[in-house]
């Protein structure tokens, strides 16, 4: 069996919607569970799309997850005995998640954080980029472009809205490659950044 070191670390799984981030997070935490290593998985309470007490992937894999309101609630919910801390939808947390992740890793926890690295306008979606810079291991996941089948690295909003967060799946967003991505599709007005 994999021998655990005393040292903590941070793993980030980043990419657009439909790139398999949740699937990969679920795969990793499930393996630790099989090895009887104490795992806790968290998700932002805002993300109640599928189920309150679970992370569920678009391919319908799932694992138990504790909904938390913010990074400080997460920090306080991590138990002493926990070794692996999974976090899905990291982009929906406040920027305090970076400090919380650093503190947990310093305390010997192994963090696995999945989240969007870019928002629907193609801008860095904090706190994921900052976490990537402080992670020992970064996995950049690609989806399949919904339009042409190419390497999808952007999340295209296909409904009209200027809100940063519009929760939804197939109906509101598509994964798009560099050539097919067009953020202006999601807005009536020209970009004003
Ligand atoms: P993420 O968490 O990155 O949004 P999930 O892990 O929930 O992604 O879902 C990944 C799964 O979604 C894939 O294994 C596949 O079954 C399904 N899927 C649907 N559309 C796409 C797409 N355009 N590209 C890749 N996978 C897709
Ligand atoms: Mg996901
Ligand atoms: Zn494309």
Describe this entry's structure for a reader.
By secondary structure, the chain is of the alpha/beta class. The chain has a domain at 9-141: Rossmann fold, CATH 3.40.50.300. It contains four helices and twelve strands. It has helices spanning 21-34, 71-77, 96-106, 128-133, and strands spanning 9-14, 39-44, 54-56, 62-64, 66-68, 84-87, 110-115, 137-140, 143-144, 151-152, 154-157, 173-176. The strands form four sheets. The chain has a six-stranded parallel sheet with strand order 5-2-6-7-1-8. Strands 3-4 form a two-stranded antiparallel ribbon. Strands 9-10 form a two-stranded antiparallel ribbon. Strand 9 (143-144) and strand 10 (151-152) form a beta hairpin. Helix 2 packs parallel to helix 3 (96-106). The protein is globular and about 45 Å long. Magnesium ion binds at residues 21-22, 88. Adenosine-5'-diphosphate binds next to helix 1 and strand 9.
What is the number of beta strands? 12
CATH architecture verdict of the domain at 9-141: 3-Layer(aba) Sandwich
From the spread of the alpha carbons, the general shape counts as globular
**What class would the helix/strand composition place it in?**
alpha/beta
At the first level of CATH, the class of the domain at 9-141 is Alpha Beta
Number of helices: 4
Within CATH, the superfamily of the domain at 9-141 carries the name: P-loop containing nucleotide triphosphate hydrolases
Low-confidence stretches: 189-193
Q: Can you list the ligands bound to this structure?
A: adenosine-5'-diphosphate, magnesium ion, zinc ion
What distance separates the N and C termini?
Answer: 51 Å
In which order are the strands of the major sheet placed?
Answer: 5-2-6-7-1-8
What are the secondary-structure elements, in order, as H or E?
EHEEEEHEHEHEEEEE
User: What percent of residues are in strands?
Assistant: 15-25%
What is the residue-mean pLDDT, rounded to a whole number? 91
Return the CATH topology of the domain at 9-141: Rossmann fold
Sheet with most strands:
6 strands, parallel
- Fraction of helical residues: 10-25%
What's the gyration radius in Å? 17 Å
